[in-house]
Amino acid sequence: MTSAKVKLRKPARADGTCQVQMQVIIERKVWVDNLKINWPPELFDEELGQCLASLPPAERGPDYKAMLEGLTAAAGGTVQLLARRVRDHNLAIGKALAKANEVFVVWRLSDQTLTLERFKQEYSTSGSKDDFCAYYKAKVQERFRKEKISVTTRKNHLSTYNALVKFRPFIPFSTLTTDFADEFDAYLKKHVPGANTRWGRHKDVKTYLSLARKDRKKFEDPYADFKNKEVKGQWKPLRTAELEKLEAYYKMCAPRTNHRRVLARFLFNCCSSLRLGDLKNIENATIENQEMTWKMHKTYAKTLQESMLPLTYRALGYLKDAQEEEGLPGFYNYADPTSNRLLVAIGQRLGIESRMHHHVGRETFATEFIRRGGKVEVLQKLMGHSKITTTMKYVHVDADMKRAAIEQLNAQDIGAELAKLAMA
Asked: What are the pLDDT digits (tens) for 23-35?
């Protein structure tokens, strides 16, 4: 049994109006959609589900004149504007009922069982059947509601949505040709600074195009001939000498001071490579025999991927300090803007030239790992990357590393020459 009917939420509010709602019933389960319309119950026909602009003289009560004057003033001061508002409200009510009935009809024709949860999903995405922008936004909200993406991912995906609608407010699936990706890229180059930000926008669009294809939307692949190029990030690692300065300063800071708190977490990251989201939730990890086990929050799926990360003695030392000093299972977590301000202040105080930011930790770990002779394929696993090309974005080969590599070759050549002389 399915039904959709427009009703008023009673009793009336202090201003004498009631919320106009659509009540949907499916298999005795009820869902109410607030239509964002407030109207006096005296001027609402519940049988027809419509707002009225006036009543016949015989049905007018003692407060009718004052009520009508108030509605007219709220609508703009004229009877014509009040009539227009009534038409707009009734149009919105009619659209809501039409959307609901469209879902009912489609599911009856499909000969499948319609659940209330499925109805809400179909109702919220109605209108996204032809428009990619509408589909994109509705799908972001659906994935967030089902806990398939995190708050941060939702924010990033909606930023891409905002870029899409500024590029083209309406994008029918039928218009998604191979020119779309190039035209969107040209728009992004004019309005979005940063190659990696643009790369991320394209990546998000491709994600929701893939989801649309799974939802049986038919369209040409706009990215078939487009190469989405990712470049090295804007964050540069700390130099070894700068890292040593921070470690020395950390030891000088008194326990539970702002600088020591923020450095404990930052230096731990420089020694461990954890993503910021996992670092903030480190209290949920298990640490035994220098190995940390936790559920990675990168994908935020219901079944999160369990990961293991060996930790260095230095990393464990920062964590142990924080736990003992704060009485917490993890680090003292500042809000990101606060931690960044503190890191900048520390950098200025110590004369550190590299840009101090909480994102620099993973870059520093990756570069130091390679600097000390680590293998990039091992680094890939430590950082939790599926592709080694992603790992290479974090590795920054500086002049000292190039000099050290050549010195190592020179030492090997000299050693080989000495061995030949010894054998002669």
From this structure: 999 989 999 999 9
